[in-house]
Design goal:
With 311 residues, the protein is an alpha+beta fold. The chain is built from 6 helices and 12 strands. It has a 6-stranded mixed sheet with strand order 3-2-7-11-12-6. Strands 1-8-10-9 form a 4-stranded antiparallel sheet. A two-stranded antiparallel ribbon has the order 4-5. The longest helix has 45 residues. It is elongated and about 100 Å long. It starts with 5 loop residues before the first helix and ends with a helix.
Protein backbone atom coordinates (compact mmCIF):
# COMPACT_ATOMS: atom_id res chain seq x y z
CA UNK A 1 0.00 0.00 0.00
CA UNK A 2 1.23 3.52 -0.80
CA UNK A 3 2.75 5.54 2.02
CA UNK A 4 0.49 8.37 3.19
CA UNK A 5 2.22 11.76 2.68
CA UNK A 6 2.51 13.99 5.73
CA UNK A 7 0.87 16.85 3.79
CA UNK A 8 -2.25 14.71 3.38
CA UNK A 9 -2.29 13.89 7.08
CA UNK A 10 -2.13 17.60 7.91
CA UNK A 11 -5.05 18.37 5.58
CA UNK A 12 -7.11 15.50 6.97
CA UNK A 13 -6.52 16.57 10.58
CA UNK A 14 -7.62 20.13 9.76
CA UNK A 15 -10.83 18.86 8.13
CA UNK A 16 -11.61 16.52 11.03
CA UNK A 17 -11.01 19.31 13.53
CA UNK A 18 -13.53 21.47 11.68
CA UNK A 19 -16.09 18.62 11.57
CA UNK A 20 -15.75 18.12 15.32
CA UNK A 21 -17.06 21.64 15.96
CA UNK A 22 -20.38 21.60 17.89
CA UNK A 23 -23.48 21.92 15.71
CA UNK A 24 -24.42 25.32 17.13
CA UNK A 25 -21.05 26.72 16.06
CA UNK A 26 -20.39 24.77 12.86
CA UNK A 27 -21.21 26.34 9.49
CA UNK A 28 -20.45 25.55 5.85
CA UNK A 29 -21.43 26.89 2.43
CA UNK A 30 -24.44 24.61 1.89
CA UNK A 31 -28.01 25.99 2.13
CA UNK A 32 -28.42 24.07 5.39
CA UNK A 33 -25.06 25.24 6.73
CA UNK A 34 -24.14 21.94 8.42
CA UNK A 35 -23.54 18.23 7.78
CA UNK A 36 -26.75 16.34 6.98
CA UNK A 37 -27.92 14.01 9.74
CA UNK A 38 -28.66 11.19 7.29
CA UNK A 39 -25.05 10.99 6.13
CA UNK A 40 -23.09 11.53 9.35
CA UNK A 41 -22.53 7.82 10.03
CA UNK A 42 -21.14 7.32 6.52
CA UNK A 43 -18.83 10.32 6.86
CA UNK A 44 -17.61 9.07 10.23
CA UNK A 45 -16.91 5.60 8.76
CA UNK A 46 -14.94 7.03 5.82
CA UNK A 47 -12.90 9.43 7.94
CA UNK A 48 -11.74 6.55 10.15
CA UNK A 49 -10.10 4.86 7.13
CA UNK A 50 -6.43 5.53 6.42
CA UNK A 51 -5.74 7.67 3.37
CA UNK A 52 -9.30 9.03 3.01
CA UNK A 53 -11.19 12.12 4.21
CA UNK A 54 -14.52 13.65 3.18
CA UNK A 55 -14.47 17.28 2.02
CA UNK A 56 -18.11 18.03 1.13
CA UNK A 57 -21.38 16.17 1.15
CA UNK A 58 -25.13 16.22 0.69
CA UNK A 59 -27.24 13.26 1.81
CA UNK A 60 -29.82 13.97 -0.90
CA UNK A 61 -32.45 16.70 -1.01
CA UNK A 62 -35.65 18.13 -2.40
CA UNK A 63 -35.23 21.76 -3.35
CA UNK A 64 -37.08 24.59 -5.02
CA UNK A 65 -34.87 27.30 -6.49
CA UNK A 66 -35.64 30.64 -8.08
CA UNK A 67 -33.00 31.17 -10.75
CA UNK A 68 -31.00 34.37 -10.97
CA UNK A 69 -31.05 37.09 -13.60
CA UNK A 70 -29.88 35.90 -17.01
CA UNK A 71 -28.98 39.32 -18.43
CA UNK A 72 -27.81 42.56 -16.88
CA UNK A 73 -30.94 44.37 -18.02
CA UNK A 74 -33.32 41.74 -16.63
CA UNK A 75 -32.28 42.38 -13.06
CA UNK A 76 -34.36 45.32 -11.83
CA UNK A 77 -33.72 47.11 -15.07
CA UNK A 78 -30.10 47.87 -14.24
CA UNK A 79 -27.54 48.33 -17.02
CA UNK A 80 -24.39 47.44 -15.14
CA UNK A 81 -21.77 45.10 -16.56
CA UNK A 82 -20.51 44.33 -13.05
CA UNK A 83 -23.76 42.53 -12.13
CA UNK A 84 -23.34 38.78 -11.78
CA UNK A 85 -25.58 36.91 -14.21
CA UNK A 86 -26.49 33.26 -14.56
CA UNK A 87 -26.92 30.78 -17.35
CA UNK A 88 -30.49 29.47 -17.64
CA UNK A 89 -31.31 27.64 -14.43
CA UNK A 90 -28.24 29.01 -12.69
CA UNK A 91 -27.70 30.86 -9.41
CA UNK A 92 -26.84 34.34 -10.66
CA UNK A 93 -27.73 37.68 -9.15
CA UNK A 94 -31.08 37.46 -7.36
CA UNK A 95 -31.26 33.66 -7.35
CA UNK A 96 -32.38 32.12 -4.05
CA UNK A 97 -33.61 28.95 -2.42
CA UNK A 98 -37.35 28.88 -1.80
CA UNK A 99 -37.36 25.46 -0.15
CA UNK A 100 -34.82 22.81 0.87
CA UNK A 101 -35.44 19.50 2.66
CA UNK A 102 -33.09 16.59 3.28
CA UNK A 103 -36.02 14.37 4.24
CA UNK A 104 -39.25 13.25 2.53
CA UNK A 105 -41.98 15.91 2.52
CA UNK A 106 -45.67 15.72 3.40
CA UNK A 107 -48.50 18.21 3.80
CA UNK A 108 -48.64 18.00 7.58
CA UNK A 109 -47.46 21.13 9.37
CA UNK A 110 -45.71 19.80 12.47
CA UNK A 111 -46.30 23.06 14.36
CA UNK A 112 -50.08 23.15 13.85
CA UNK A 113 -50.92 19.52 12.91
CA UNK A 114 -52.75 20.88 9.86
CA UNK A 115 -52.19 20.29 6.19
CA UNK A 116 -50.97 23.06 3.91
CA UNK A 117 -51.04 23.44 0.13
CA UNK A 118 -47.85 22.12 -1.45
CA UNK A 119 -47.52 25.46 -3.25
CA UNK A 120 -47.12 27.23 0.11
CA UNK A 121 -44.81 24.54 1.49
CA UNK A 122 -42.52 24.97 -1.52
CA UNK A 123 -42.26 28.74 -1.12
CA UNK A 124 -44.61 30.09 -3.80
CA UNK A 125 -47.30 32.67 -3.03
CA UNK A 126 -50.09 32.01 -5.53
CA UNK A 127 -51.06 30.27 -8.72
CA UNK A 128 -50.51 32.05 -12.01
CA UNK A 129 -50.54 31.32 -15.73
CA UNK A 130 -47.30 30.34 -17.42
CA UNK A 131 -45.56 33.49 -18.70
CA UNK A 132 -46.00 34.16 -22.41
CA UNK A 133 -43.16 36.65 -22.72
CA UNK A 134 -41.61 37.20 -26.14
CA UNK A 135 -38.28 37.60 -24.32
CA UNK A 136 -37.68 34.37 -22.41
CA UNK A 137 -34.27 35.62 -21.30
CA UNK A 138 -36.06 38.06 -18.98
CA UNK A 139 -38.17 35.36 -17.30
CA UNK A 140 -36.86 33.90 -14.05
CA UNK A 141 -38.15 30.39 -13.54
CA UNK A 142 -38.66 28.31 -10.42
CA UNK A 143 -37.23 24.81 -10.56
CA UNK A 144 -38.25 21.81 -8.44
CA UNK A 145 -35.47 19.24 -8.01
CA UNK A 146 -34.65 16.00 -6.29
CA UNK A 147 -30.90 15.36 -6.06
CA UNK A 148 -29.43 12.09 -4.72
CA UNK A 149 -26.38 11.94 -2.49
CA UNK A 150 -23.29 13.86 -3.56
CA UNK A 151 -20.06 13.18 -1.71
CA UNK A 152 -16.45 14.23 -2.28
CA UNK A 153 -13.68 12.13 -0.76
CA UNK A 154 -10.04 13.22 -0.91
CA UNK A 155 -7.58 10.33 -1.13
CA UNK A 156 -3.90 10.17 -0.29
CA UNK A 157 -3.16 8.46 -3.63
CA UNK A 158 -4.84 6.87 -6.63
CA UNK A 159 -4.33 3.53 -4.87
CA UNK A 160 -6.47 4.79 -1.97
CA UNK A 161 -9.03 6.32 -4.35
CA UNK A 162 -9.63 3.14 -6.39
CA UNK A 163 -11.71 1.16 -3.83
CA UNK A 164 -13.85 4.24 -3.11
CA UNK A 165 -14.69 4.66 -6.78
CA UNK A 166 -15.35 0.93 -7.24
CA UNK A 167 -17.71 0.82 -4.24
CA UNK A 168 -19.58 3.92 -5.49
CA UNK A 169 -20.15 2.57 -9.00
CA UNK A 170 -21.16 -0.89 -7.74
CA UNK A 171 -23.65 0.72 -5.34
CA UNK A 172 -25.42 2.57 -8.16
CA UNK A 173 -23.64 5.93 -8.22
CA UNK A 174 -22.79 5.48 -11.90
CA UNK A 175 -21.60 9.01 -12.64
CA UNK A 176 -18.85 8.90 -10.01
CA UNK A 177 -15.29 9.68 -11.02
CA UNK A 178 -11.84 10.85 -9.92
CA UNK A 179 -11.00 14.53 -10.11
CA UNK A 180 -7.88 16.59 -9.36
CA UNK A 181 -5.47 14.41 -11.32
CA UNK A 182 -2.91 17.22 -11.18
CA UNK A 183 -1.59 15.28 -8.17
CA UNK A 184 0.40 13.26 -10.72
CA UNK A 185 2.67 16.31 -11.05
CA UNK A 186 2.01 18.17 -7.80
CA UNK A 187 2.99 16.28 -4.62
CA UNK A 188 0.79 18.60 -2.53
CA UNK A 189 -2.37 17.86 -4.55
CA UNK A 190 -4.44 14.75 -3.98
CA UNK A 191 -7.06 12.90 -6.07
CA UNK A 192 -10.68 13.68 -5.27
CA UNK A 193 -13.37 11.02 -5.72
CA UNK A 194 -16.74 12.56 -6.63
CA UNK A 195 -19.56 10.16 -5.73
CA UNK A 196 -22.79 11.03 -7.56
CA UNK A 197 -25.64 9.75 -9.67
CA UNK A 198 -28.07 11.46 -12.00
CA UNK A 199 -30.10 8.33 -12.68
CA UNK A 200 -32.63 8.95 -9.90
CA UNK A 201 -32.53 12.73 -10.12
CA UNK A 202 -35.69 14.71 -10.88
CA UNK A 203 -36.13 18.25 -12.25
CA UNK A 204 -39.15 20.25 -13.37
CA UNK A 205 -40.12 23.89 -13.87
CA UNK A 206 -43.01 24.71 -11.53
CA UNK A 207 -43.20 28.49 -11.37
CA UNK A 208 -41.77 31.87 -12.29
CA UNK A 209 -41.09 35.25 -10.71
CA UNK A 210 -42.43 38.67 -11.61
CA UNK A 211 -40.81 41.86 -10.39
CA UNK A 212 -43.33 44.00 -8.49
CA UNK A 213 -41.91 47.22 -7.07
CA UNK A 214 -38.49 45.66 -6.79
CA UNK A 215 -39.80 42.55 -5.03
CA UNK A 216 -40.06 39.03 -6.43
CA UNK A 217 -43.64 37.84 -6.87
CA UNK A 218 -43.12 34.08 -7.10
CA UNK A 219 -46.05 32.32 -8.74
CA UNK A 220 -46.78 28.63 -9.22
CA UNK A 221 -47.68 27.76 -12.81
CA UNK A 222 -48.71 24.11 -12.28
CA UNK A 223 -51.66 22.47 -10.54
CA UNK A 224 -51.50 21.32 -6.92
CA UNK A 225 -51.96 17.73 -8.10
CA UNK A 226 -48.79 18.02 -10.21
CA UNK A 227 -46.79 19.30 -7.22
CA UNK A 228 -48.12 16.36 -5.20
CA UNK A 229 -47.01 13.96 -7.96
CA UNK A 230 -43.51 15.47 -8.00
CA UNK A 231 -43.22 15.17 -4.23
CA UNK A 232 -44.45 11.57 -4.21
CA UNK A 233 -41.85 10.65 -6.83
CA UNK A 234 -39.13 12.51 -4.91
CA UNK A 235 -40.10 10.80 -1.64
CA UNK A 236 -39.83 7.38 -3.33
CA UNK A 237 -36.41 8.31 -4.69
CA UNK A 238 -35.28 9.29 -1.22
CA UNK A 239 -35.79 5.63 -0.27
CA UNK A 240 -33.81 4.38 -3.27
CA UNK A 241 -31.08 6.90 -2.50
CA UNK A 242 -30.86 5.58 1.08
CA UNK A 243 -30.47 2.02 -0.20
CA UNK A 244 -27.61 3.06 -2.50
CA UNK A 245 -25.89 4.98 0.29
CA UNK A 246 -26.04 1.90 2.52
CA UNK A 247 -24.72 -0.36 -0.27
CA UNK A 248 -21.85 2.04 -0.85
CA UNK A 249 -21.01 2.14 2.87
CA UNK A 250 -21.06 -1.65 3.22
CA UNK A 251 -18.94 -2.29 0.11
CA UNK A 252 -16.35 0.33 1.06
CA UNK A 253 -15.99 -0.98 4.61
CA UNK A 254 -15.76 -4.60 3.40
CA UNK A 255 -13.07 -3.60 0.92
CA UNK A 256 -11.14 -1.75 3.64
CA UNK A 257 -11.37 -4.78 5.94
CA UNK A 258 -9.94 -7.06 3.25
CA UNK A 259 -7.06 -4.68 2.57
CA UNK A 260 -6.21 -4.44 6.27
CA UNK A 261 -6.26 -8.23 6.55
CA UNK A 262 -3.97 -8.80 3.55
CA UNK A 263 -1.62 -5.86 3.98
CA UNK A 264 1.17 -5.48 6.50
CA UNK A 265 4.04 -3.10 6.99
CA UNK A 266 7.33 -4.13 5.32
CA UNK A 267 9.21 -4.35 8.63
CA UNK A 268 6.45 -6.42 10.21
CA UNK A 269 6.42 -8.73 7.18
CA UNK A 270 10.20 -9.31 7.40
CA UNK A 271 9.98 -10.12 11.10
CA UNK A 272 7.07 -12.48 10.47
CA UNK A 273 8.94 -14.32 7.69
CA UNK A 274 12.05 -14.57 9.88
CA UNK A 275 10.04 -16.05 12.75
CA UNK A 276 8.28 -18.47 10.40
CA UNK A 277 11.66 -19.54 8.98
CA UNK A 278 13.10 -20.18 12.44
CA UNK A 279 10.01 -22.15 13.39
CA UNK A 280 10.26 -24.27 10.23
CA UNK A 281 13.95 -25.05 10.84
CA UNK A 282 13.15 -25.97 14.44
CA UNK A 283 10.45 -28.40 13.28
CA UNK A 284 12.85 -30.03 10.79
CA UNK A 285 15.49 -30.44 13.47
CA UNK A 286 13.03 -32.09 15.85
CA UNK A 287 11.80 -34.36 13.07
CA UNK A 288 15.38 -35.44 12.32
CA UNK A 289 16.02 -36.26 15.99
CA UNK A 290 12.83 -38.30 16.18
CA UNK A 291 13.85 -40.34 13.14
CA UNK A 292 17.27 -41.13 14.69
CA UNK A 293 15.59 -42.32 17.89
CA UNK A 294 13.18 -44.44 15.89
CA UNK A 295 15.98 -46.08 13.89
CA UNK A 296 17.97 -46.78 17.06
CA UNK A 297 14.99 -48.34 18.81
CA UNK A 298 14.20 -50.46 15.73
CA UNK A 299 17.75 -51.82 15.76
CA UNK A 300 17.48 -52.82 19.41
CA UNK A 301 14.17 -54.56 18.77
CA UNK A 302 15.69 -56.54 15.82
CA UNK A 303 18.65 -57.79 17.88
CA UNK A 304 16.34 -58.86 20.66
CA UNK A 305 14.29 -60.85 18.17
CA UNK A 306 17.36 -62.71 16.88
CA UNK A 307 18.45 -63.59 20.45
CA UNK A 308 15.01 -64.99 21.26
CA UNK A 309 14.94 -67.07 18.08
CA UNK A 310 18.20 -68.76 19.06
CA UNK A 311 16.71 -69.70 22.39
Amino acid sequence: MDTIPSSFTIKKNNILENLSTPDDKYSDLSPKGSVDTGIRELISNINKLDGLVTTSSCAGRISVFLEGAKTESSYNGQQNSSIQVAVPGGKGKGGRWLFVSHDPVNKLDSSSSETRPFMKILGMSKHGRPPMSSKPETTRFVKFQFEPMILHVMAASLHHAQPVLAAAINAGFRESGVQSLKNLDDPKAFPMVAIRSSGIGLSSLVGYASDIDGEDDVQCMVEESYLELLLNIANDRFLENSKRVERFRNQLLQSAHKRERHWEDGKVRRERLKAEGLEERSKKALHSVDEDHLNHDSGDISLLGLYLDKL
